[in-house]
Design a protein that fits this description.
The structure is a homodimer of 356-residue chains. Chain A is α/β, with parallel strands linked by helices and 356 residues long. Chain A contains eleven helices and eleven strands. Chain A has an eleven-stranded mixed sheet with strand order 3-2-1-4-11-10-5-6-9-7-8, sandwiched between helices. In chain A, α1 links the parallel β1 and β2. In chain A, α1 packs across α2, α5 packs across α6 and α5 packs across α11. The interface between A and B is large, with 60 and 60 residues.
């Protein structure tokens, strides 16, 4: 198996990525990693890490980088950027999966344009596994910001794709899929949400109905389907709340000499808690719906997160996530009565802006 | 000053509310509390608490209760419910403020119909103060679920009203008002958000532009304006994440004998942290935009939260929050060029469903 990774997609340059690649390769499974990025800078980072190119570690040169502030439109001017080269590797079949890091909008744009969407999927979605009260059942939230104007048919595809990801990659049996709403009754929300509810009921998933924001963390739901605008707001609020609370714990420990002593006694347990929280940033977030295994990671990812994203990419290929998505979406297109609830079917053209 | 409170709006009956009222009265300021609810049940709770009616504690009988599962439409069948009587007390001028507890949708519905909206305000909004990294500056998020289909003109009124609440009641100078979006650039989000951005720029507030979900807790923003659907999702996700992390801390402490010892050493500091987190449930959430001071509290509110909501109601009356809102909205109606960005003005009729 061959996995390509954007070696330039880190706020601190290639070093943390090269380090993560090294960690991944040392785990000893049979995979080759293709690093994509500026030859000199990546080489320099490799020398620092004491590793060299081999049959398990290749380098593809890309002279440009999509910076964090670059827009998707800038991809046109940056055809030799690492993200464009990365997508080309996957598109042209030289690798089995890709890990993009850094500018998320650019990664979503490049992957969607380059790899095209799976037939029947109209918008790709970013899924992120969040920690929950139940340590054995992370909750996958989709979409986390790829699509800020979700139609009912986008939401139902998200439910199907994330359910497959949860089952195949996270190992959950019969993932419980919920639709994010302001209450549990099926009448809640606007007309588009009620249509999404009806479509999700007919989809080949374990749909448990409407859920609320709290169910992301309660452990009562394994997949939460929502608009990318809301997913983005919830993810970012949660990240900051968690880090704020972590800061408070640190402040509590550093308050006096005896709380410092307490901190030492608790350090092992607090470390465990930190690991549970970090779950989200680990593993990378799959961009579901594109033709190819595509993981997206943070521009601040450290080496363990990079290694973890490579592992998730490997697992996604091994478990045939995309083939299963393709089969299920195809099956759904034939069986789900989109017309029944007045939702446009695939055959009909979609209008530009939001409709009631 | 006279404040009415729904004595029936608690999942555990009148007891926690009566207890909270007692706490409030014992603080010794010159206010009278009017409890509204079933005479026998409230009397029973008063006997349990060892308090009786006086010139500072009155009781208004209401034979019905809006249960948690009741819909707004059920208000028509429950004209003698405690929430309807509560609103009537305020509407008919017998009290200066009201504290509703329990069924939020019913409270919003009853208050909006009964009290009517402030001229120029088209939708009421629920504001909630959230704890932030900066202990001196809580962040007010509006709307938390009163309005799940916000138009630009609703959002700008929310910004103005919550800014006044933040300054007058929470005591923040020049509150920084942000518009919740998926990025900071003014081009982000859909057309309605871009219109809201332009309106907020012209409003008589300290508008700092677009903010992201994380800014609710970062301490960099004092008022976050958003759609009620998103506010609801973020609030509920945050509540559950915070309680999940609190559970993890408890588990960490109860893991071994030496972590238990550490827990004892840390208890004072952890108590402080808990207090900071509880900020949200304290004080009640003002329903801004209605003609009258109206606080809304949780159906699970305990006595200290009830007392705190009464205090916030008192503060809102003293600080003339609603008069200031009325003045500012009136001023804005004259100066803000709604037409400039293609937004319907007050004079034009509003269509039923979402428009692009």
């Amino acid at each position: 198996m061959r996995i390509a990774i954007d070696a330039m997609g880190n706020d601190n340059g290639p070093a943390p990525i090269v380090k993560g690649v090294k960690m991944f390769l040392e785990e000893g499974h049979e995979s080759t990693v293709v690093m994509v990025g500026d030859r000199d800078r990546v080489n320099h980072a490799m020398i620092e890490e004491g590793i060299g190119l081999s049959h398990r570690l290749e380098l593809v040169h890309a002279s440009q980088v999509m910076e964090m502030e670059d827009k998707v439109a800038d991809l046109r001017e940056k055809r030799d950027s690492s993200i464009m080269r990365l997508v080309a590797e996957l598109k042209e079949g030289r690798v089995d999966a890709m890990v993009a890091l850094g500018n998320t909008a650019a990664a979503v744009g490049a992957a969607t344009i380059g790899l095209k969407l799976i037939t029947g999927v109209r918008r790709p979605g970013i899924a992120i596994a969040m920690p929950t009260r139940n340590p054995d059942r992370p909750c996958v939230v989709i979409d986390m910001g790829a699509n800020i104007a979700c139609k009912p048919q986008h939401l139902v595809a998200y439910g199907v794709m994330a359910s497959i990801y949860s089952a195949k990659v996270l190992g959950l049996s019969q993932p419980r899929v919920g639709l994010l709403n302001v209450g549990e009754e099926r009448s809640k929300g606007n007309v588009e949400l009620r249509q999404a509810y009806e479509l999700l009921e007919q989809a080949p998933i374990n749909f448990i109905g409407n859920v609320e924001g709290g169910d992301i963390f309660s452990g009562d739901c394994d997949v939460v389907v929502c608009d990318g605008f809301i997913g983005n707001a919830v993810l970012k609020a949660s990240e900051t709340l968690a880090s704020t609370m972590s800061t408070w714990i640190k402040e509590a420990i550093f308050a006096t000499w005896y709380t410092k002593a307490a901190g030492m006694l608790l350090s092992g347990e607090l470390q465990k808690m930190k690991k549970r929280l970090d779950y989200a940033s680990y593993g990378g977030a799959p961009l579901l719906g594109v033709n190819g295994v595509c993981l997206i990671g943070h521009g601040r990812s450290r080496a363990p997160a990079v290694a973890s994203a490579l592992r998730t990419a490997r697992e996604s290929v091994t478990m045939r996530v995309n083939a299963t998505i393709r089969e299920n979406i195809e099956r759904m297109r034939k069986s789900v009565r989109l017309k029944a609830v007045g939702v446009r079917t695939e055959a009909e053209p979609e209008k530009g802006s939001a409709a009631g």
